[in-house]
Amino acid sequence: MMADTDVVRSSGIGLPPGSLVYRGEKPAGPVKITLLDYDASHLEEREIRQVEECFQFKDEPPVTWVNVDGLHEADIIEKIGRHFDVHPLALEDIMHTEQRPKMEDFDDYIFIIFKMFYHDAAADHLKTEQVSLLLGPTWVISFQEEEGDVFEPIRQRIRNAKGRIRKMGADYLAYALMDAVVDNYFLVLEKIGERVEDIEEEVVSDPDPETLQHIHRLKRELILLRKSVWPLREVIGGMERAETDLIDQKTGIYLRDVYDHTIQVIDTIETFRDMVSGMLDIYLSSVSNRMNEVMKVLTVIATIFIPLTFIAGIYGMNFAHMPELAWRWSYPAVWLAMGCVAVTMLIYFRRKEWL
Asked: What kind and span of H or E run contains 122?
């Protein structure tokens, strides 16, 4: 999940390159490692108790998928990196959970970082998690911050031998994992779209300070999405164009499809950003119009009482020779005059469409 940015940055100050220090929110549970080893005719699935158990699958012909849930135990990451010959800087980036999505080709393997998003229905906001992939000739190692992901449909396809995933190599598995993350972006954007519609209706009908908070929160989430999806487009494009034996030409076609989906996600994000910016303008206009209505009512009331105050001021002056003071009907006559003035002004304001 999202970590405190200040803590993340300060925890790596002064350390030498390649230092394995977890920079994120530490989960309460232990690290969980699962393994799927498969080809077209067989499947082996197990939960790894000791990290050394997965080392025997490194050079075997079938595809091996090792998934690590939890990055807070540096010795496990270090052992995996040492056995699979992963560069120390790549291991450091795996444990630094505020990385920008990127792809690096190390000849013997490809290192990929991207973001996985969830919509928290209870808190009604967006959560993000960093996912790191190591793609080798016959293996894929995925690193996640905590247990729980969008990869379960991939696991089910492997278990049920559905589609072409059991017949393809490790590069197709890496594609499938990235495709699952990108497809989940559409679900996240669907939830954001519903929130945009609700806030838009609220802005027009009855805006309040809480509405402004919702708009700003939504704007921050869209900025976070944009910062994660734009680099992912470059990652997928780089994989498609990479001159490496680790990615088969057949898989490049599927990567191109994920690239197109990423473009659609970016277009949707930009549309929502424009809508949210428009809602902010509508909110400010609504608040200003409401204030203008209040000021108009107060101005009308003050304008009506100005001539009444004038009449009452003249009537209340203590002149020695004021004929109306001795007149029996002077008091009700003054009230009648003031009432007529008030009604006449209201009629005049209405005809001018000031009310």
From this structure: none
- The CATH number assigned to the domain holding 10 equals 3.30.460.20
Domain endpoint, select from 255, 285, 315: 285
Helices 88-95 and 74-83: angle between axes, nearest 10 degrees: 150
Query: Looking at per-residue confidence, does 62 or 123 come out higher?
Result: 62
Model pLDDT, residue 299? 84
Answer yes or no: are the C-beta atoms of 130 and 145 closer than 8 Å.
yes
Question: Rounded to the nearest 5 degrees, what angle is found at the Cα of 141, between the Cα atoms of 137 and 142?
Answer: 140
347 shares a domain with 272: no
CA distance 246 to 20: 27
Q: Are strands 110-120 and 102-105 parallel, antiparallel or unpaired?
A: antiparallel
pTM listed for this prediction: 0.77
Single out the residue of 266, 242, 118, 223 nearest to residue 175, CA to CA.
242
Distance CA 256, CA 233 (A): 10
Look-up: residue for tokens 């009537």?
315
- Do 12 and 30 reside in the same domain of the chain? yes
When pLDDT is averaged across residues 69-74 and rounded to a whole number, the result is 86
Q: How many domains would you assign to the chain? A: 2
Cα(309)–Cα(199) distance, integer angstroms: 46
Both tokens assigned to 195: 């929130």
The verdict on 63 and 133 lying in the same domain is yes
Pairing mode, strands 32-38 and 102-105: unpaired
